[in-house]
Amino acid sequence: MxxxxxxxLRAESLAHTSALLREHGDAARLxxxxxxxxxxxxxxxxxxxxxxDISSLVELRGIxxxxxYLRIGALAxxxxxxxxxxxxxxxxxxxxxxxxxAHAAIRNRGTIGGSIAFADPAAEWPACALAADAELxxxxxxxxxxxxxxxxxxxxxxxxxxxxxxxxxLEFPLPGPARRFAFSELARRHGDYAIVGxxxxxxxxxxxxxxxxxxxxxxxxTPMRALGAETCLTGxxxxxxxxxxxxxxxxxxxxxxxxxxxSAAAKRHMAGVLLQRAVRAILNPEAAP
Length: 289
Prior knowledge:
By secondary structure, the chain is of the alpha+beta class. The protein has twelve helices and 14 strands. The radius of gyration is 19 Å and the shape is globular.
């Protein structure tokens, strides 16, 4: 199928973008990498009257350190993150996750901001933002507003982004020397959306886990913290008893819906498997693939 007719404007600034969003409301859509939007247009799942091209806005570009944070502009492409030495050095969780984002052709065009704003519950970046305690920088063209990742994802494809706002960047606190990360997912084919996935961060001191953040994706309408598992594993070396209790706690924290390929019980089982893999990778990073 072909896309329905629409008008096109190239935004000149954040202020211009917000003004257009205010003027056109729900009839307008932002165009950045276009890897989701163009597909929905061609399938007639989306019928905006106006596309606002924000791909040239310099305020949304760049990957770099700012004080105690790693700042990634919303227009950073998946491949930019995948190949960034700065990201690999300071936040390897994103480097681990990037190759799992769709396929190379999509990673060459798609942006992290588009993925975060679209908020697909099976996507990798929202869960990574949650696990790495990212702060999202939003702008209405006049004022910036900051929202923690844990407060940004509200429900299925629903976020705290207001109608006239633009996601400008993500800021990740720089991890300390004891911080380690793990990422894993299970998909029917590489490049497909995950059936279940996990992004995990923890401090490791003398083989003991602390300050855990365990985020699952594909297990609900938003990326979800496994708070029970975090509590069970905190202060332990993930011995058999702690690991068993943590896996059992997933039944209370996670209530996934069945889909065409997996039952809810199967998803919970896969979540337990991924949790074991992530903990093992964090405790023994030299043995991780």
